[in-house]
Amino acid sequence: MKDLSQENYDVMRSKARDFCATSWPLSGPEADLPFREQVICWQKHAINAGFLHRSVPAEYGGGGMAPDIRAEMIIKREFAESDVPYLESTPNGPQFLVPALLECGTETQNQKYIERTLTGEFDWCQGYSEPNAGSDLAALSSRAELTNDGWLINGQKIWTSNAHSANMMFGVFRTEKDAKRHRGVSFLIVPMDTPGILARPIKTMHGSVDDICEVFFDDVIVPAENIVGERGDGWRVTRSVLKYERLWLADTSVVRVQFNRLLTLAEQTLRGGRPAITDPHIRQTLSEIEAWVRCQELLIERLIAAESHGAGEQLDGEMQFVKLLATKTQDAVAQLAFDLIAESGLLAPKGAELTTLQNLPKIVSERRWANAFFASLANALGGGTSNMQRNAIGENLLGLPRDIRGAG
Amino acid sequence: MDLWLSEDQRLIQESCRNYLDAECQPRVVRQAYDTDLTFDRRLWAGIQEVGATGVAIPEQFGGLGLGMMELALLSEELGRHATPFFLEGHNIAGLAIALGGSPKQRDKLLPGLASGDKVATLAMLTMDRSREQTTRSTPSPSADRLYFVPLADVADLFVVELGDGRVGILERDGTEVEVRALDSIDCSRKFFEITFDPSAIDVLPNISSDVLSSAALTVLAADAFGAATRLVEETTVYAKTRRQFGFPIGQFQSVKHQLAELALSAISTRGLFWDAAMSFDNDPRASLRSASMAKAHITQQSMYVARQSVELHGGIGFTWECDVQLFFKRIMFDRNYLGTPEFHRERCATLAGWCK
Ligand SMILES: Cc1cc2nc3c(=O)[nH]c(=O)nc-3n(C[C@H](O)[C@H](O)[C@H](O)COP(=O)(O)OP(=O)(O)OC[C@H]3O[C@@H](n4cnc5c(N)ncnc54)[C@H](O)[C@@H]3O)c2cc1C
């Protein structure tokens, strides 16, 4: 990895800022397209200008540049501070699947999926969890059987984010009858318009029917070539995808922006006629939350430094803290915001969809902040619960004796 | 600023660790607890020999000519071994004179401090109970008495934080300094009260008390980091060996999860003191906020780690015999000396301009 000098990073920051100011909203005929297509157009512009998906090879529609996490962080920070729609599509495809495909996919698959995923044409949902396989994912029982027509899939997934709006799914299915648990699963790609698929929204605790679904498979057939990796090798591919999901969670540009918005809320909320931030308790709590934010930022700074010295693996241990750290920070942000908005926090949240990491209110909209009170909990569950993170830290980092593991 | 240790820095930390692993085992620390001993000449002589008494003093005066980052790494190891006798204070005093002394002061004082033939310590302001809890100040302008001064019995030189933002020095051989031992909890850094003639103070012309604080807070944060990570390691080892109900207690999930939280609380804070130290090396006058943040957060989290470590050791953890107490008390000192976490959070808020 080649590092730019500080000066060049400063240039990059101002270029990114200019790009944000001029590229969105769209102009000309593009501005008349439906919103979703506008997002696709904008993402294409951002890739061409060298701001998005920089290190994905050019032949698959990326920027074809050498990886440079620092540059990516700078760009994301600028994007997150502005109004550009860089987080409008879910991260599932571009952030998790694409790097995993680059690790485990075939040339044909990479040609077929990567570019259209980067532009947002393919919008992905992740099919892992099942009613009886949550934390214990290896207990999954939805099966796929190889027939002359392709994979014949039957079973059910649950908690699938965005399944109702996504046009593609990747997920794990049991394909090997005789192999036990994780050894018997394969990683498959399933277009959501395939006959036999039913995605039914689940109403969440904050009243949204736009976030998660249960997905039923009834004699669904997908082509045989839709397998990524070998038969029975689905666990390895899944772990690769989850690895990138955790890296994405470590995206500190988002945490910093989130903290800045909390600051704005504390400055603009009045207490006894004065800004709440002038209350020592509030500002000291803000200092404390900022220290958590810094821990995460500095961990990533250290990772970047280590990578630039070719020693990224030195941080493998400490990187295991990232998800719990992010959960802690979001929890603290949500709790302080709930304090600040007081009674307004008791009115039903506006904009029912989950206010997750990526779209916390930019302006002081109290009812959107109420949403954060719920959304911060989703982080403790999705992608592996906090308890499972603690198991992993205890066993992998500290080397404590292993826990009871699934039977069979 | 690259948050990365150079090969030299890694070697320095490693050699500090190896040295203290060999020379500063808990039984050495315990001599400070179980006797009246306040200074261990033998240990000090060894530290002199490896050059650790002059880490941040320029080479021309016989020091190692290194910076705050190296001091912080050394301090992490001192905390990790609960090493007696406030070598951190001696080193910060040397740094203060190197940065802020006049040519005459530097020439006169630095060689003795670098070699460790002369011992220096810090005499800093304490929390002022008569006013709001979150201010610190001298008792009064005519102050001739300071409390909570570590190492005062053997110190040849005091670097004194004055109430007006300046920093001065007080030399033992130029004036009468009366020293009274205070009954201290952390016996690895026992406190004293000193009484002196304020007119004997010689001001350091080129350093402010903010810069001095920045340096001192950074090493305290590093010290607490070292002590807390040591506790996580010791407690993990204990959880692997102590058996109940037929299993190592570390196999019980509640214990495992407690330990995972302790590891997170202790280890994930490393960047904070690195950042404070590197900012200091970059510009000492611009590092106070990161130093305050590191001190507040790391010492607070470390105290949590220490309390939980006692609990996870069961009854033995509550005893004098168990080494947990050494690190527990180390962290108590790091947390409350030079301002509580609350004080420093307030300062972070002020320095960020949130309180206008
Ligand atoms: C908003 C949201 C979005 C999601 N999106 C997706 C998605 O897109 N795709 C997808 O596949 N899944 C998704 N999930 C599912 C998520 O990954 C699971 O909810 C999670 O893995 C937990 O599984 P479970 O719900 O079956 O709970 P369980 O596994 O039954 O866990 C219940 C409780 O028991 C604890 N527990 C379980 N086993 C252990 C153990 N061994 N040790 C200690 N504690 C344990 C858990 O920590 C938890 O507190 C989503 C969930 C949410 C809330």
The CATH architecture of the domain at 210-351 in chain B would be Up-down Bundle
Please provide the count of β strands of chain A.
10
β-strand amount of chain B? 5-15%
Averaging pLDDT over every residue of chain B, what do you get? 93
Radius of gyration of chain A (CA) equals 22 Å
**Oligomer class:** heterodimer
CATH-defined fold name of the domain at 210-351 in chain B: Butyryl-CoA Dehydrogenase, subunit A, domain 3
The CATH first-level class of the domain at 210-351 in chain B comes to: Mainly Alpha
Mean pLDDT across the residues of chain A is 88
Give a short account of the largest sheet of chain A.
4 strands, mixed
Give the overall form of chain B: globular
Question: What report would you give on this structure?
Answer:
- The complex is a heterodimer of chains A (408) and B (356).
- With 408 residues, chain A is α+β, with helices and mostly antiparallel strands.
- In chain A, 45% of the residues lie in helices and 14% in strands.
- Chain A is built from twelve helices and ten strands.
- In chain A, a hairpin with a 2-residue loop joins strand 2 and strand 3.
- In chain A, helix 7 packs antiparallel against helix 8.
- Chain A starts with 5 loop residues before the first helix and ends in an 11-residue tail after the last helix.
- About 3% of the residues of chain A have low confidence.
- Chain B has a four-stranded mixed sheet. A three-stranded antiparallel sheet of chain B has the order 4-8-7, with no helix packed on it. Chain B has a two-stranded antiparallel ribbon with strand order 2-3.
- Chain B starts with 6 loop residues before the first helix and ends in a 5-residue tail after the last helix.
- At the A-B interface, helix 7, helix 8 and helix 12 of A face helix 7, strand 11, helix 8, helix 9 and helix 10 of B.
- The structure holds flavin-adenine dinucleotide.
- The site of flavin-adenine dinucleotide (FAD) has 20 residues of chain A, from strand 1, strand 3, helix 11 and helix 12.
- The site of flavin-adenine dinucleotide has 20 residues of chain A, from strand 1, strand 3, helix 11 and helix 12.
